[in-house]
Design goal:
The complex is a heterodimer of chains A (291) and B (325). Chain A has 291 residues and is an all-alpha fold. Chain A contains 13 helices and no strands. Chain A has a domain of 195 residues: MetI-like (MetI-like fold). In chain B, strand 9 and strand 10 form a beta hairpin. The chains are: A mainly alpha (291), B alpha/beta (325). The complex binds adenosine-5'-triphosphate, iron/sulfur cluster (SF4) and magnesium ion. Magnesium ion binds next to helix 1 of chain B. The site of adenosine-5'-triphosphate has 16 residues of chain B, from strand 2 and helix 1.
Amino acid sequence: MESKRKETSPSRVPDDLFVPLPKEQQVDTRQQKGDSYWRDVMGRLFSNKLATLGLILIILLSIMAIIGPWLTEHTYRSQSILESNTSPNGTYWFGTDELGRDVFTRVWYGARVSLFIGLAAAVIEFIIGVTYGGISGYRGGRVDNVMMRIVDVLYGLPYLLVVVLLMVVMGPGLFTIIVALSITGWIGMARLVRGQVLQLKSAEYVLASRVLGGSNSRIIRKHLLPNTSGPIIVSMTLTIPSAIFAEAFLSFLGLGVQAPVASWGTMANDALGSFKPVIGGDCFSRPSLYH
Amino acid sequence: MTAEKLLEVKHLKKHFHVGKNQVLKAVDDISFDIYKGETFGLVGESGCGKSTTGRTIINLYNSSEGHVQFNGQEVAHIRGRKRKEFNQKVQMIFQDPYASLNPRMNVAMCIGEGMDIHKLYPGKKREKRIHELLETVGLQKEHASRYPHEFSGGQRQRIGIARSLAVNPEFIIADEPISALDVSVQAQVVNLMKNLQKEHNLTYLFIAHDLAMVKHISDRIGVMYLGNLVEMTTSEDLYREPLHPYTNILLSAIPVPDPSIEQTRDRIIVKGEVPSPVNPPSGCVFRTRCPEAMDICSQMKPVWQEAKPGHFVACHLYEETSHAR
Ligand SMILES: Nc1ncnc2c1ncn2[C@@H]1O[C@H](COP(=O)(O)OP(=O)(O)OP(=O)(O)O)[C@@H](O)[C@H]1O
Ligand code: SF4
Ligand SMILES: [Mg+2]
């Protein structure tokens, strides 16, 4: 106890710790901090490891999705029956599948489909979620109550059942998948935005704007949305990978895009057949690995 | 008082519905007038409905009952072009300097908001005007591009004042503009507000929770308790001869600068807690804590009456009719 006290006693702290920073430097850091609120947004994004990982992965995958299929002379649907189920080699970098299609081309072609679904889901979630949550939170009172009960009901629906039903009604396909993902996907966003708006709308700076005669649209655009943008962006970034997973999962169950179109989920599903004879075979492991 | 009435509040009530069948009477039948060029202080404990009064006057809340008239016009019915005018003429300064500025807007955007809404200073004039305003409130024009988090509480409050001045108001509701600030800074802000009042011919409704600072700035003072006005008169009168028991308690709570007096003087200690505005006491709302409560106080609500010229009070001690009984 006694020794510890001595260590932390002021006299032991070197004097140079107390030298004030030069004036300019002080001003500098403050200026930077205030320069843009994107820093704050980015800070929040990057402090969430999962979100950061998602972002990096998406960027890498996007690049490959764009150029990947052009790197080989095969197309995603061209077959050479004689060379089915080959291991990776010079012509077929990831080998071929059961039907003799090039897995490398299909993986990146599938990436296009999967990423498109991810992006579409995120955009739809943003549009519906922000609008719905924004109205609910901003109107408040009874409107909010009704709107939130609707959300609760939607949230309570068994997801797979809804998806299967949709598939029956609309037929499987890219569009159906996006609809299926969007049907409940926006709920989280709506709740998030609603909570934020509900809290922010009675903030004094919002009242100040109203006292100055600010219109609802001005208050929403200038005050509410900018102060909610951080969480919204983080939530959207998290949506993209989760939508891709969901699509893969649905496709894997046979509820997704139809052959010969490739997506990561259908590829994994197709490969399941050859998985049994060639345990650990490349056509199964590649698409799964890249999930 | 021969001056012109600027604001007239008549039997104003604001009730909030909280939970099932419960009504919170935040403001319960208050009346007062504010004259052009004066400062009217509104004082009362936390939660007695001061902010609600201010916000109802400026129409942030719809009143439950009663009237608010500004320049003879019913505020709740002002629409269209007149509404825009009203939004310029009546402004508000807020209590919490940390919550009253949007953290995403720099100072120029904060101050310029009103000018943008009313398209007052187009083009280059806007920047010039912002710089002027910053200097008026004791900041520098270099501060225009900074963000609120870079400022202290007192500086933020100055920015808030500049924001409300930007639209050339006549009447400013200052909702506890100093209670979140250090004592030394409080005086600076009060002095700034006083100077601005002189320069711009402003009328203030100055809300505060203790009498100490209010007496320096106010011409007349209204004392509020649990949604009711209990006493209203000029500041000198209120200090010289307070009538209502609650005012006496508030006055005795002001510390005296001289320590020898401070130690020996009698302080009236308020007993008990403030009752809930959901379920206020019958009769006089103050009776649960009043040192002079009588039988009649629980049975009848005291009448708001003029005990002396210009000195209003609501207390059975000063009701001749009830006293005589
Ligand atoms: N929007 C609201 N909904 C329900 N009750 C409210 C609302 N605003 C205020 N109240 C209640 O009304 C009463 C008066 O509140 P008000 O904010 O006017 O008090 P105040 O005198 O300004 O207090 P303070 O000095 O703490 O600012 C309080 O009991 C408060 O809980
Ligand atoms: S009316 Fe009665 S209880 Fe109320 S303040 Fe006067 S003496 Fe006290
Ligand atoms: Mg208040």
